[in-house]
Amino acid sequence: MELFKFIFIYTLLIMSVLGYGLIFSKNFTLYNNFQNKNISLGYIGLFGIFFSIIISYITNFIFPHNNLHNLIFIFIGIISFLTFLKKKNKKLISKYFIFCYLISFFSIFYFKSHDDFPYYHLSLITNITENKIEFGISHFDIAFNHVSSLFYFHSLFKTFLTGDYFYQIGQIGVVIFINTILLENIFKNKSNKLLNISFFLSICLIILTNVFFYRLAEHGTDRSAQILFFLAVILAINLLEENKLKKDSFELLIIVFSLIISIKSFYILYSILFLLVYLKFFTLADILKVFKIFPVLYLGLLIFSLMIFSNIAASGCLLYPVSFTCFDSFFWGYGKEQVISAMQWYEVWSKAGASPNYRVDNFEEYLHNFNWVPYWIENYFFNKFSDYFLGVLFVMSIMYFSFLPKKIILINFKKYLSIYLIFLLLLAEWFLNHPALRYGGFVLVFLVTAFPFVIVFANQNFQYKKKLIQIRLILLIVFIIFSGRNINRLINEYNIYDYNLLKNPNYSIQSNFYNMQNSKNLFFKDPYKCYENNSSSKIKCKKIFDYNFYYNEKNN
Questions:
Q1: Rounded Cα–Cα distance for residues 501 and 505 (Å)
Q2: Which residues, 6+ apart, have CB-to-CB distance to 440 below 8 Å?
Q3: How far apart, in whole angstroms, are the C-alpha atoms of residue 253 and residue 235?
Q4: How many Å apart are CA 177 and CA 41, to the nearest integer?
Q5: Which strand (E) or helix (H) includes residue 74?
Q6: pLDDT tens digits, 521-545
Q7: The dihedral formed by the CA atoms of 451, 457, 460 and 463, expressed in degrees to the nearest 10
Q8: Residue 554: which pLDDT band, with cuts at 50, 70 and 90?
Q9: Considering the entire predicted model, what is its pTM?
Q10: Radius of gyration of the chain (CA)
Q11: What are the two backbone dihedrals, phi and then psi, of residue 543, each rounded to the nearest 5 degrees?
């Protein structure tokens, strides 16, 4: 009974997200309106996530995302989906979407969440459901500086029916929707069509998403952003291959990049790829013209501004933890010196100088020049990085022997050299500053490794109909691996944690997972009131225009 209830609610929430995607497609896109053209339901789903995030940011300025707010939000989405489904004359739901939805059942059930979920993800989501936007929450723990639009998105789905047990809906939504887009890209080819770079990159992204990222609980916010960046690469290449601007693809690229940066703000650096595409068709002086041609840019600017504001509210920084974007003049801020110290800690951790079990004694000496490299090679390259890298090479070898190119030809590589140089530049930045796979390394290592193979495959001029057996076999293997690894995971979780999804399909939540709420109970006499004399610690609270501002007494 509990399992069926979970699946029923899960289905309704996916329908609601799609409903908002249809609203967005109809009212806010000029070139991807589902009523005027056939557009993948996968893109509709991404539109739904994008639009829901904007709604969540804006409404949280006014009130918390409580039970009533969220029930209304979800209900509107479901009604919209059913209404558009009834009105749409052409088929809206494809067999590829149904397949991706059904196979997602292997991954949505798990007992143990991402390590950051009990640390700060759950607390931040809960705070949005209990309060309208608050300032200075980073004083309760350094982790609360890390805000993501996915937290705002997930805050829309807590009701008396769902509890705190559907905060994987964003990550699984990204997986379902992108799998749908990719399968439609692959199988909606004409029989005599030649297989191009985008086609082979689509297969690569399916492999990355379903083989390497098979365990949904490990996604957090990092992997969703990396999957979306890979999709942005495919869209960018589609645009760069054309002499004439494809307005629908460029509009999609705007939305996808806006979504990526809102989920993980440091991916703003990756927008150099967007700039490359922009400069192919426009000049910097054309920016006003571009806004006129693509009004969705205003919404991209809006979600970026809202992301910046949420950063300022939490930490006093425009882009935490970039210290030069932090201002000590914000009395609720975490403080520039503390941010610099935190940035050093993150760098040490990503360069294998610290773990839950050890840390180096002298951070500055460790980070000086390349002193950290031998330790990183010993503690991270072997075996975390090397296992992943060898896995990517193995996958590309399988693809090579499946398609069997007659010659190793890189004649078109120069055409895509600018893109590959961007990959190498981003990989160099990753290695020098934060060389942990979760911080962009998964997608960059895959792209840098796979791209030369993809060029070789595309140069063979393979016809779709002649390689259909190999294509189907590769995808069959991918989804068998995805299903098998998740089934094996569920068996292990049953043996280790006694997790029985038939009795209780929810992931584990313990009282100590609500770190921020527990801290408020500890630091304030009444955690639901905000005035200076209410505090029993150095952390104070005062109201300004009916908003809660937390600050450290010594900072004010």
A1: 4
A2: 222, 226, 229, 266, 267, 270, 426, 430, 434
A3: 6
A4: 7
A5: helix 67-87
A6: 999 999 889 988 898 888 999 999 9
A7: -130
A8: low
A9: 0.96
A10: 24
A11: -95, 135
Cα pseudo-dihedral 59, 61, 66, 70, rounded to 10: 10
556 within 8 A of 143, measured Cβ to Cβ? no
Give the DSSP H/E element, type plus range, for residue 540: strand 539-544
Give 67's Cβ-side CA count (13 Å radius): 5
Structural contact between residues 50 and 303, judged by C-beta atoms closer than 8 angstroms = yes
Non-local CB neighbours of 214 within 8 Å, separated by 6+ positions: 107, 481, 482, 485, 486
Best CA proximity match to 472, nearest among 206, 84, 155, 112:
206
* Lookup result for tokens 């067999």: 95
Tell me the CA distances in angstroms from 109 to 3, 106, 292, 474, one per residue in order: 10, 7, 45, 25
What are 94's two structure tokens? Answer: 């494809």
In this structure, what are the phi and psi dihedrals at residue 347, rounded to the nearest 5 degrees?
-65, -45
Residues 414-427: tens digit of each pLDDT = 889 999 999 999 99
20-54 burial string, b = 16+ CB within 10 Å, else e? Answer: bbbbbbbebbebbbbeeeebbbbbbbbbbbbbbbb
At 328-379, the pLDDT tens digits run: 889 999 999 999 999 999 999 999 999 878 899 899 999 999 999 999 999 9
Residue 316 near residue 332, CB atoms below 8 Å: yes
The DSSP bridge partners found for residue 524 are 535
Cα–Cα dist 447/443, whole Å = 6
